[in-house]
Design a protein that fits this description.
The chain has a seven-stranded mixed β-sheet, sandwiched between helices. A two-stranded antiparallel sheet has the order 2-3. The longest helix has 33 residues, at 84-116. It has two domains: 4-116, no CATH class; 137-367, BirA Bifunctional Protein, domain 2. It has 371 residues and is of the alpha+beta class. The protein has helices at residues 4-9, 13-16, 21-45, 50-61, 67-76, 84-116, 137-150, 165-168, 204-212, 253-268, 321-327, 343-351, 364-367, and strands at residues 155-156, 162-163, 197-198, 217-226, 238-248, 274-281, 284-293, 310-319, 335-342.
Length: 371
């Protein structure tokens, strides 16, 4: 390597008699040429000489005595104000040029060494393993439920989480005096026109779909819903539901029961049995609570099912003819069934999760158990 750059950069621009931007650019061009010559000399010394590689880098980029450090101290810091911008720009260009050239040179030598040693790149080796996110347990459960129902002809629809009382209550045959419409149970949006609210179930999309489509209708509606429940181990003010609706001519309670049994076997296992208990919902008549044999003990009785052998799954029933009046369907000709499931509860039941908050705390120790 030539010693000219080091001797030259020990002096200030004033000492060198450089007084114009053009002269500065010329000096940096000469330095760039001198570095390129040093690089050629380095290559000619020999393949893979690590000491020479370090010496070249230190000579030009060393923090204390490197050429670029001397330029910074002796040219840039002492330059007249009108010349400092030019010196800074040229210094950055030279630094970028040197760093790129050194990287290319080292890569070149590495390839040469590998060839000499007979080391070839093995394209069959696995690449760099990177961490990927996984689907949340709730998302996995949603996808499993949707797969079960789309396999038998249901389609998936989604709708707004902010609803009007008409779609959330009235069109579902929930009268104005019903307790579910009280402020103690529902989040109403203050100041909103038409008293908008956060939907308490995904059933409004059943009404919206029937308004737009003629029978037959077979849909499932997944999504978030909101109710004014105090958060604890089994409740939260936000949770997830998937509701279903089937309307056509000649749909009977037997069709409803068969669909329920099919779902239970697909979700909990082929040996699962179901039973229906009478219940009441304003939008179905008759209504039923659907139970399944405990997935833990198989119906024999255990702590999970409180030694009854049965676990409650969801509420369902045949669509109340009064609902058809809101969507201008003929209740004399049409019939159907509807159901609504709590996805959080189903996920907890199937995967042994004991508390609702665990699903939403974003604790990796919990989430990584369900890749």
């Amino acid at each position: 390597m030539t010693t000219n750059p080091r001797e030259q950069t020990k002096q200030t621009l004033t000492q060198l008699g450089i007084q114009s931007p053009g002269a500065i650019a010329q000096e940096f061009a000469e330095l760039r040429g001198q570095f390129d010559q040093d690089k050629v000399n380095f290559i000619n010394i020999g393949v893979g000489d690590r000491n020479q590689s370090d010496a070249l880098r230190l000579y030009w980029l060393g923090r204390k005595a490197g050429i670029l450090s001397q330029i910074t101290n002796n040219w840039l810091k002492t330059a007249p104000p009108e010349l400092k911008p030019t010196v800074g720009q040229e210094l950055n260009k030279l630094k970028a040029h040197i760093e790129l050239a050194l990287e290319e040179t080292l890569n070149y030598f590495k390839e040469r060494v590998d060839l000499q040693l007979g080391v070839a790149e093995d394209l069959s080796l696995p690449g760099i393993e990177r961490a990927y996110g996984t689907r949340h347990l709730i998302r996995q459960t949603f996808e499993e439920l949707q797969r079960i129902f789309t396999a038998i002809g249901f389609s998936v629809v989604q709708g707004p989480e902010i609803e009007t009382p008409y779609y959330n209550f009235e069109a579902l045959n929930i009268p104005e005096h019903h307790p579910a419409r009280d402020n103690m149970d529902t989040f109403y949006i203050e100041g909103a026109r038409n008293s908008h609210l956060l939907r308490t179930h995904t059933s409004p999309m059943q009404i919206r779909t029937m308004e737009k489509e003629k029978p037959p209708v077979r849909i499932v509606v997944p999504g978030k819903v909101y109710r004014r429940d105090n958060p604890d181990a089994t409740h939260g003010y936000m949770f997830h539901q998937i509701e279903g609706l089937a309307v056509d001519t000649d749909i009977t309670f037997c069709d409803f029961k068969g669909t329920v049994e099919y779902f239970a076997r697909e979700f909990l296992g082929p040996k699962t049995k179901t039973r229906l208990r009478p219940s009441y919902f304003p939008f179905t008549e008759p209504s039923a609570e659907v139970d399944a044999t405990c997935h833990v003990c198989g119906g024999k009785g255990c702590r999970v099912c409180k030694f009854s052998g049965w676990i409650e799954l969801f509420g369902a029933g045949m669509v109340n003819p009064a609902v058809y009046g809101f969507v201008k369907y003929d209740p004399e000709r049409l019939s159907g069934f509807a159901f609504g499931m709590g996805v959080d509860r189903l996920a907890m039941m199937k995967y042994g999760v004991t508390e609702v908050p665990l699903l939403f705390q974003n604790d990796l120790r919990f989430l990584q158990q369900f890749p």
